Amino acid sequence: MSAVRTETESATALSVQALRKVFPGTQALKDVDLTVRFGEVHALVGGNGCGKSTLIKILSGVVPADAGELTFNGRQLPAAELTARAAYELGFRVVHQDPPLYPDLSVAENIALGGHYPTAKSTRIAWGEVRRRASELIERFRIDVDPGTLVRDLPVSVRTQVAIATALQDVKDDRCIVALDEPTAALPAAEVGLLLSTARRLAEMGHAIVFISHRLDEVMAAADRVTVMRDGQVFAEHRTSELTEAVLIESILGRRADEIRGQRATVTAGEPILAVSGLSAGPVIDVSFEVRAGEILGVAGLLGSGRTELLTAIYGGLERSAGEVTLAGRPLRGGMGPTIEAGVVMIPEDRARGAAFLDMTVDDNMDIGVLNRYWRGLRFRRAQMRQDGDALRARFGIKAPSGSVEMRTLSGGNQQKTILARWLRRDASVLLLDEPSQGVDVGARADIYGAIRTMTVAGGAAVVVTSDLEELAQFVDRAIVLRNGRLIAQVSGEELTAHRLNELVHTQSGKPS
């Protein structure tokens, strides 16, 4: 999918030389060298904690480097001297996964906020000029949207397009270096192609695109070159035209792709442990299914199909208008507190807001559900708790300098593993997981599902919602499909493939239209 380039377009946009950064307890970047060219999509990949985020923060002037040289479009400066203002003036832009747009303002108003509001002689806002400028920008970036549309009414992919256009609105003839940080992580599968096309189109306009993603199929589809980071260093660089996804996985993890594939249950699942009967709640309508001990059940469906609401209703966080949920034959009632006590726990999609205590330490995040275990009369066994924390971090492969660092310093994958450790040490019977691998690398994904499988082999069960149909086909034992709040299909065995799930999710009949 590489674009044809002229000699000018292949000029160096960004050069990073011997970049170093040390945080307390860890060396985040070790002599990093990187070259990005105008007119290309250059992917930056690596496991959680490999240094990608630190590198982007340094390039955007948010975090100072300790050593190294940076060159932006021919202008060189010491990395330690780069500020956010200087990075912007040198043409470096970052568009994050969750772009900072105002949902209750229109597209035109958000674009104006990203630059400035034009005013008339009376100092009042010149709304006609606001709309004209927005229309020109929308046309320039070929965004299919009316400038008067409220941002809250836009698909997520179009919001990201608007954020990109807003970031580049002051760029006329000059070319920029645009870092797209996990731009597709929160997108439904149907919208991913639009963002990948946008990245390619920006490169064809002459910009240099740094594309950061954990989704390796997208990297292979969109990028011209790939730089792999591992443990704060550049490990390898590849041309995607000479690369396979299996080789890329091995380059990232140091393990072969077949070593991280999921395994379906090797024993027959036991008796039903969780039963949902005629459940209606919010958009969920009359859904019934069972999950057996030892089983991982997947839930597929488009955004808005009721997947998240189904989990939330089982968990007690959404009022049920009809139906019943039972755990080992006993009804679950009374909200989230009694549900947790009964042994059903949930890790939501937005772990930063709904599950992680970011200002607390890693160990405190793991311990918070079991503090009562460490009381002996009036004495609290803190040393034992620390010892158990060390063992848990090792067991779950949580990469952290120590258990005393703040949760916010961990990568997304390590945060997810910490939350998983919290609940599994409570001996939960059923795990409900909403997009458990969102924003985590392929290795952390395998670790997460490995921990889930260990729990189910011991007699528990799990229900997993994910938009990644390849992931469902790879890791779960059986899947149900929701459409418009209703359960329309169940698949298992040889029928459980990404292709079949895609048919069921996107077509009315389950057959290609």
Description:
This protein is 32% helix and 25% strand. It folds into four domains: 1-91 and 174-259, 3-Layer(aba) Sandwich (Rossmann fold); 101-170, no CATH class; 261-343 and 429-442 and 459-513, Rossmann fold (3-Layer(aba) Sandwich), CATH 3.40.50; 353-427, no CATH class. It has a six-stranded mixed beta sheet with strand order 6-7-8-3-9-10, sandwiched between helices. The radius of gyration is 24 Å and the shape is globular. It is built from 17 helices and 22 strands. Helix 14 runs parallel beside helix 15 (442-457) and helix 16 packs across helix 17 (498-506). With 513 residues, the chain is an alpha/beta fold.
The CATH superfamily of the largest domain appears as P-loop containing nucleotide triphosphate hydrolases
CATH architecture classification name of the largest domain:
3-Layer(aba) Sandwich
Mean pLDDT: 87
Instruction: Indicate the radius of gyration in whole angstroms.
Output: 24 Å
Strand content is 25-35%
In total, the number of strands is: 22
Question: What shape does the CA trace take?
Answer: globular
Structural class: alpha/beta
Number of domains: 4
- Give the biggest beta sheet: 6 strands, mixed
Count of alpha and pi helical runs: 17
Low-pLDDT stretches are 1-9, 509-513
Instruction: State the helicity in percent bands.
Output: 25-40%
What is the CATH level 1 assignment of the largest domain?
Answer: Alpha Beta
Q: In what order do the strands lie side by side in the largest sheet? A: 6-7-8-3-9-10
Assign the CATH topology of the largest domain. Rossmann fold
Head-to-tail CA distance between termini: 27 Å
